[in-house]
Specification:
Oligomer: single chain
Structural class: alpha/beta
Distance between the termini: 25 Å
Radius of gyration: 15 Å
Strand order of the largest sheet: 3-4-6-5
Strand content: 25-35%
Order of helices and strands: EHEHEHHEHEE
Largest sheet: 4 strands, mixed
Number of helices: 5
Helix content: 25-40%
């Protein structure tokens, strides 16, 4: 639950995904994209991150399959040192960067630390308590 003063900024590269969430998937999220506190940007998340300075309390990345950009080579920037530095700058003090991945990546953990984040690597099940494949979510805190 977020407060009345909160803002949620969503970047979605695929217009069809936005349309689905405004249409036949709207009920699944309790019509969250229609909430006045939510703004949808049909663009690459990297452009929002690059243009922000101390703008966000949290950045949640569920891009590609994690640090190894498999579907779009352009996604590499989000996970390299320059992209992580931009994410750090886009966060307010004590802000959090959370990044989902299909699997572990020690080099990504090291890059997060090198960018100045305090890092916690959390292993989760794809289907929560029902099991499924193990996934990774990095929770990286800006100091």
């Amino acid at each position: 639950m977020i407060g009345a003063e909160a803002r949620v900024v969503v970047a979605e590269l695929v217009p069809a995904v936005v349309a689905w969430n405004r249409g036949w998937l709207a009920g699944v999220s309790d019509h969250s994209v229609a909430d006045a506190r939510v703004s949808i940007h049909e663009e690459d998340v990297s452009s929002l991150i690059r243009s922000a300075r101390s703008a966000y309390d949290a950045i949640l990345l569920d891009v590609d399959n994690g640090p190894e950009a498999l579907t779009r080579k352009a996604n590499d920037w989000l996970y390299d040192l320059a992209g992580l530095g931009a994410a750090y700058a886009a966060l307010r003090p004590r802000g959090l960067l959370a990044a989902w991945s299909a699997g572990p990546d020690r080099n990504f953990t090291r890059r997060l630390c090198k960018a100045g984040f305090e890092v916690n690597e959390v292993r989760v099940r794809a289907r929560g308590t029902r099991g499924g494949a193990r996934r990774i979510i990095w929770i990286a805190a800006r100091s």
